[in-house]
């Protein structure tokens, strides 16, 4: 079940560097794409940094709305993740093409992709220089959610079933699934 | 064995979002710290974005020299990774404390930490606004190396032995080791 995550725990949803899906909505249009280059930037208020390439349809929706959602998909969604990362919403209706269902977000117009294990609703903090020079965007996380079968009470479960695990993009359609959880001896 | 990596393949060394070690050197001093918030930013020339907190000794060395090395440690180095991320080089000689050996880099003064599986030598691209506001740094990767038992011919090996696998920081001393490699059906 999708449950709210405290904002001070939001960074933990992406701290392990998984591949993400980014949704955006503007002017009656919605799109979703895969983004590997996304990282936490601050704890409280939570911020993140993300690369949204200039030539993508999602970027144009983010430019128009100043909002987006970063979500963490699971290994169960591998073909969809790779698919939405390799076609453009300008020529394909990705929602139909990949059978993606979505839900309303709490604070932004961009939708939440169903079946993910975490969602971060983001508002762009305008930084025009780095947006133009590097496609690099800074955003504040204004709401966060998680599947409580995967992340509960501010923590990822250690004993995640494989279908709930997140994946990391290596390159060219190859991904690595989260493996063993280990703890340093503090 | 540590071998050079072509610059256009450098992003692949960190694309999966592993925890990294950052080394820097300035004015006769050298330090190393752990950094989870690091991501690729461009392919060619390769760039990366990284958060270097204002109050760290390593940050002061990066500010002084304009250079650093990002390296990808392995799960074998877990206690050291967590250790260098939780003390300051201002009060501890981390090299001695954690028994870390190092080698000379090719193009920067910062040393390479022995035993890692990848190294990216970086030169800061000055972006004072985001450095001050978010501790966010943009850098060009000017040389890259990999352990050829882990990464060869521009690719991570699929059959990495556990000791060569990289880890991702979840939070508070908990990490997840890379698991199964999967391929989307392109």
Comma- or semicolon-separated keywords:
homodimer, 186 residues, mainly beta, Pnp Oxidase, Chain A, two-stranded antiparallel ribbon, globular
Would you mind describing this structure in some detail?
- The structure is a homodimer of 186-residue chains.
- The radius of gyration of chain A is 15 Å and the shape is globular.
- The first copy, chain A, is mainly β and 186 residues long.
- Chain A has 4 helices and 14 strands.
- In chain A, the strands form 4 sheets. In chain A, strands 1, 2, 3, 4, 5, 6, 9 and 10 form an 8-stranded antiparallel beta sheet that branches. A two-stranded antiparallel ribbon of chain A has the order 7-8.
- Chain A has one domain: Roll (Pnp Oxidase, Chain A), CATH 2.30.110.10.
- The first copy, chain A, starts with a strand and ends with a strand.
- In chain A, strand 13 and strand 14 form a beta hairpin.
- Chains A and B meet through strand 4, strand 5, helix 2, helix 4 and strand 12 of A and strand 4, strand 5, helix 2, helix 4 and strand 12 of B.
- Strand 14 of chain A pairs antiparallel with strand 14 of chain B, so a sheet runs across the interface.
């Amino acid at each position: 079940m999708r449950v709210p995550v405290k904002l001070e725990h939001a960074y933990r949803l992406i701290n392990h560097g998984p591949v993400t899906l980014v949704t955006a909505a503007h002017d009656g249009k919605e799109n979703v794409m895969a983004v590997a280059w996304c990282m936490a930037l601050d704890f409280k208020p939570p911020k993140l940094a993300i690369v949204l390439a200039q030539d993508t349809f999602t970027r144009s929706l983010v430019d128009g709305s100043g909002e987006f959602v970063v979500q963490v998909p699971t290994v169960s969604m591998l073909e969809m993740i790779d698919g939405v990362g390799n076609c453009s919403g300008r020529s394909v209706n990705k929602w139909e093409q990949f059978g993606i269902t979505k839900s309303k977000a709490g604070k932004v117009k961009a939708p939440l992709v169903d079946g993910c294990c975490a969602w971060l609703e983001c508002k762009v903090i305008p930084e025009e220089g780095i947006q133009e020079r590097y496609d690099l965007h800074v955003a504040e996380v204004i709401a966060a959610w998680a599947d409580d079968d995967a992340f509960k009470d501010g923590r990822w479960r250690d004993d995640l079933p494989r279908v709930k695990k997140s994946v990391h993009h290596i390159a060219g359609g190859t991904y690595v699934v989260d493996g063993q959880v280990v703890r340093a001896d503090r």
